Amino acid sequence: MKIVVVIKMIKKGIIGIFTCLLACGLVFFTGYSKSVNPQELYRVYLDGKTIGYIKDKTLLEDYIDREQSELKKKYNVDKVYAPNGLDIIKEVTFDEKISTEKEIYDKIKDIAPFTINGYIITIKGTTTFSESEGETTTDDLTIYVLDRELFDEAVKNTVSVFISDEDYNNFINDTQEEITDVGTLIEDIYIKNDITISEGKISTEEKLFTDIGELDKYLLFGTTEEQQKYKVKAGDVISDIAYNNKLSVQEFLIANPDFTSENNLLYEGQIVNLGLIDPVFNLVEEEHVVEMQEQNYDTVIEYDESLLVGYETVKQDGVNGTLRVTKKVQKINGETMSAVITNSEVVKPAISRIIVRGSKVIPSVGNLSVWYWPTARPYLITSSYGWRGGDFHEGLDISGTGYGSPIYAANNGTVAEAGYTSINGNYVYINHNNGYYSIYGHMSSLNVKKGQVVSMGQKIGEMGNSGYAMGTHLHFGVFYGYPFHSGSYTINPLELY
Which residues, listed in sequence order, are joined to residue 398 by a DSSP beta bridge? Predict the structure, then answer.
C-alpha cells in the first residue's frame, strides 16, 4: 500500500515538472509572460506601417465619421471614411497593447487626409502637336466629382458649345431633315478619348468638382483659372480682336458663345473672352454635306514662239462655274480636321481664261499678274492662312481632291529645294526668280528635283499625307524671300488669285 502511494506521488511530481517546463518554454519562445491565450484583434496599418491594434473595426470607422462633421458639411455628404492607405486587418495575436479609437484617430488625422465617396473619371489623352515647339505630347487626365450626374451634365454643356442643341437633339432623336438639294446631315457624334468612370473613396485633398459652372469651364478650357478678358474699343470688329490675340475667328466664337458670326456687332466697353480653347476631350462630329461651290476658272497660257518675249494678250475671258459638291467632313472640337469629296456635279461649267504670250523658251521668271491654282478642282480649304490654336499658320491647307491627285507649280520658276522632312513630309520650294517663293508640303511623291526649271501648271508631285499631316492635304505657302530665312515673310496665297 505504501509503495502504491509513493509511486502516485512520483507520477504527480513528474507531471508538474513537465507542465512547468512547457510553460517556461512558451515564455522563452514567444516572449509573453502574462498570458499565452490567443485573441482576435484588428491591426491598423497606414501606408504599410503598423500604428496600433483595436478591438472593433466598425467603432474606429464610426469615430472618424463623427469627428469629421466639418467635412460632411463642406461637401454635403452623409459619411466620411478613413484615409486611402489605411488598412484594418483581423489577426489572431497574443497580448498586444490595444489602442482606443481616439488614439488611432489622433495618430492619423494630421498626416493623412480622410476620404468621401465619389466618382473617379479618367480621360485618356490624345497626341497633340505644337507647330511652334515642333513636338508632340500625350497625357491622361483624372477628374474627381461627387455626383456622376454633374459630370454628365457638364459633358452635355461642352458638346453644346460645338454643336447646337437643335442639331444635337435632331441627331439623337433621328429627326434630321433629308437633303433634297443642299444641306448637312450629322452622321455621328462621339468622344474620341477613352473615358472610364468608377465609384470610389476620394481623398479630400484632391480637387473635387461640386459646381457645374466650374466643371463646364474646366472641360472647355482645361483649367479653372480666370480667362483673359478684353474691353472692346470703338471701331473693333471680331476678326481683328481674334487676330491681334492669336485666335482664329472660330476659337473666338467658341470662347464667346453669345456671338454667332464674325459679323456680329460689338459695342464700346463690351467685355469679351480671349481664353484659348483647350478641351480636355476630343469631340468628333462627322457630317455628310452637300453644297454649291463656285468653281474658279483656270487661266491657260498659250505660248506663241512666233511672238517676242513680253508680248501678251487675252484670247478668251474666264467665267466661273458652279459645282454641287458632296463631301464627308470630320470636325474635332468644332474645327475641320479632314474633308473628302465623294461626288461633284457640274451645275454650270467654268470657262477658262486664255492668255496668249510670246515666248520661244519656258521663262524661269514668274509672272506676278497670273498664278496657277496648285491642286485639281473641286477642292476644299480646310485651314486658312492666319492664327490657329495659338500658332500662326503660314499658308493654306487644301484638301478634297484625294490621295495621289496632281499638285501643280503655281508659277514659272526654278526648284530651290525638293526633299523630305519629318514635319513637311515630301516638299518642294520653287524660286520664281522675282523675289517670290512658293512651297508645297505633305505630298505623297515628287516629280521634280532641285535645279529644275518648271512652268506654271506643270505637275510637280501628288497630294498625300506625309510628314506631320492630319489627313490628306496640300500645305501651300507663298514667301517673299527665301522661306524661313532672315528677311523673308509670308503672304496670304489667296491675295494672288
Answer: 381, 474
